[in-house]
Structure formats: C-alpha cells, structure tokens
Amino acid sequence: MQENLKGILLLIVLVALSFFGFRIFNNTDNRESVSETETDTISTSTTTTTLYIETYNLPSFDFEIDVENALQSINELCLVKNTWFSLTNECLNNWLYSYKLITANEKLYLSHYEYTFDYFMNNYSNIEKNDVEFIIKSLAIKEQMKFYTSEIIEIEKVLAIKNNQEENTTTIFLSDDAINNSKDIGTNDLLNGCYVDLADNPDDESMLIEVESENSRNSEALNYGIKIESNINIDSDCISKLLNIVLNHENGWTKITGKSFNHTNIENSDYVYIFASPETTDELCFPLETNGIYSCRNESEIVINNFRWRNGASDFLNDMETYRLYLINHETGHILGWGHRGCPKEGAIAPLMMQQSKGTDGCIPYGWPVYEMIKANFDN
Predict the structure, then answer these.
(1) pLDDT at 112
(2) How far apart are CA 315 and CA 333, in angstroms?
(3) How many H-runs (helices) and E-runs (strands) does the chain carry?
(4) C-alpha distance from residue 366 to each of 176, 330, 380 (Å)
(5) CA distances from 368 to 1, 73, 189, 273 (A)
C-alpha cells in the first residue's frame, strides 16, 4: 500500500542530498577562494566582515510519530491490503479514520513545509549539519500529505460504491447456455457437494473439526480456514479443493479484490468457512436469526448451513451446482464488506449479493459476482 509513498520520499531525499552535495562543492571552492582573499587582506588591511547565518527553527511536532500513532488505531485484521475493494466496510472506515487523523493537522504540517522550503532555498550553502535530517524530513511532508489525502478520496469512493449497492444501475441478461456454462468449473464436486454419504449421522457426537493445510500464511492473499462438523459426512479433502477452485476462479472475487484466496490453518487465517448442522448454524450465527434454514456470515466466520448445502433453494429448482456456487460466493461477499441488493429487472441474472435463498423476484439464479465486478470497476 505504501510503495507509492516510499518512491516519493526516496525522490525527495535524493533531490535534497543533491542540493547538499552542491553546497559542499561550493563551500570547498569558497574556502579556497576565501583563503586566497584572506591572504591578500592580511597584507593590505585589518578589516573583517561578520557573516550572519539564519537559524533554522525546528518543527513543533514529530510528523513520523504523529503518523505512527494514527496508524496504530488500525485493526490488525485490516492491515493486509492490495486494493481497497478487498477490505470490509469496517476495515475501510478504520483506515479512513486513521488517515483523517493524520490530515487533521494539515495546515500545521504544510506551514512548516513552506517555511523549510524557503529556508532551504535561501540558506542551503550554510545549513548546519545537525539540521540536515530535520530539513530532509520536512521537505517530504508535502508529498506525504498529498498521498494521504488521495487515499482518503479513494477510500470514500469505494465506500460510496459499496454503500449504494441497492441502486440497481445495471441490468444483465445472459443466454441459457451462458448461465449453464457458468457452473462448469472443471469438477463434479459442486454436484455431489463433497458428501461421502448423503445420510447424516445424528447419533454421533457433534464436534467441529479443522481441515488442516500445509500452506503458510500469505500476506499477499486472503487467508481462510475450514471447519466441518463431524456428523454431516462432508469429505475434508474434497471441500478444501472445491473451495480453492471456486474462490480463485477467474469469474469470482479475485477480479474485484485483486487478491488470491489461500487455505491455511485457522490460527493463521483472516476468516473461516464452517460447514455445520442447522442446530450448530443457529448457535454460531446468533444473534442473527437463521431459523435452522439459512447460512450466515458472523464476524470472521462464514457458516454454511448443511440444510442449504444439501437441499438448495426453491428458485434454483434442482440446480445444486449453481446454488452451491452462489452460497460460497455470497457469504464470501459479506466477508469482503458487500451488502444485500435486489433484483434489477425480471429475466435478468440475479446479483450475487441478492438473498437468492429467500427468492429471486423474477431474476434468474446466478452464482458469480458480475454486478459487483461492474460496481467495483466501472461505477463512479
């Protein structure tokens, strides 16, 4: 996130150092010239001239500490970022608050920058060594403030897009062939749901079991863990492979977030998918009301209700592949900060973030974030 800022600061430092190098070169010439002049003066005159050097006023603040203190308010879970669209609304507001803390003292910072710039231009050949570090840092302030101001504008734009998702500015129609082809992801696991046996074992003691991964945490990706309730007979290797395919599919959220999805152990994850019985789903989703029939996203957990994973929803008819695509991608959208929206027009494909499990209002069930992609990349 800070690469552009680092480049700006490096450029400023190089420019400043080139000025100081020029100053040293000039001072060397001046000393030689002064030495010759002084030699002549000694033999002809005793008159001396006192050179007045303006004192540099150090800043009344420590900009680096001010920035550091402001950024400390950012939640650790919000620090991993590639594009702003990869963050939840909560994280976006977290960053926005921190950046606004920095820019709150913009007048003070820029006033000192202007003073330092004028001082530097008028006195660069006589700058005290102890002032050099402060001057270089102060000359970087203006570009740093531009960076933080531009980031604030960008975050506010993304928040506006996400918060106005209910405005159906786009209607998308697809052919039957295109809709049918959308569920072809190169595996039959969407169709069978990764079930080992379609019959659950309600008499078995229920417990959530982590699906372990050999993958380490990837700071450039969205890291997720997986848990499966022991009595619903979903194969752990199968579900791990299926989630990886869906989440990293070219039609999925990666085109919006700019990030891949990485299955890692829960302790290293950003969020967790939990495949659970209806009873456990209700417990994990509380205070959200799932009533034994819905799935949810609750904080950093996506809880997939086994009732839905096995049976689908009425508007999907018998199309379990599209429904399971929808269920994974819809709840993932909530983790990424996207809210619900409605059907834009009868006969259009349903937006992914529509609550399609409850009905599609005349839209055609669909499992990929097409509307969301348009919102993220084209809406202003």
Answers:
(1) 95
(2) 21
(3) 14, 6
(4) 11, 10, 25
(5) 28, 34, 17, 18
Provide the token pair at 53. Answer: 């050097």
130: exposed, middle or buried (Cβ count in 10 Å: 0-12, 13-18, 19+): exposed
224: which strand partners? Answer: 263, 271
**Cα separations (Å) of 47 from 40, 42, 80, 110, 296?**
12, 9, 67, 43, 89
Which class for 245: exposed (0-12), middle (13-18), buried (19 or more C-beta within 10 A)? middle
Tell whether the torsion through CA atoms of 313, 315, 319 and 322 is positive or negative.
negative
Residues in the chain: 380
Domain ranges of the chain: 3-163, 176-378
Nearest residue to 344 via CA among 361, 322, 368, 367: 361
Tokens read off for 88: 């939840």
The 10 Å CB-count burial string (b at 16+, else e) for 359-375 is ebeebbbbbbbbbbbeb
- Distance, in Å, from the CA atom of 1 to the CA atom of 150, rounded to the nearest integer, reads 12
Q: How far apart are CA 357 and CA 267, in angstroms?
A: 31
CB atoms within 10 A of CB 117: 15
Summarised one tens digit per residue, pLDDT across range 188-202 is 999 999 999 755 555
Indicate whether 44 pLDDT > 50: no
Instruction: Please name the fold of domain 176-378.
Output: Collagenase (Catalytic Domain) (3.40.390)
DSSP β-bridge partners for residue 296? 303
Q: Which amino acid is at 79?
A: L
- Which phi and psi (to 5°) does residue 309 adopt? -60, -35
- Sole residue written with tokens 């928040």: 159
148 vs 54: which has the higher pLDDT: 148
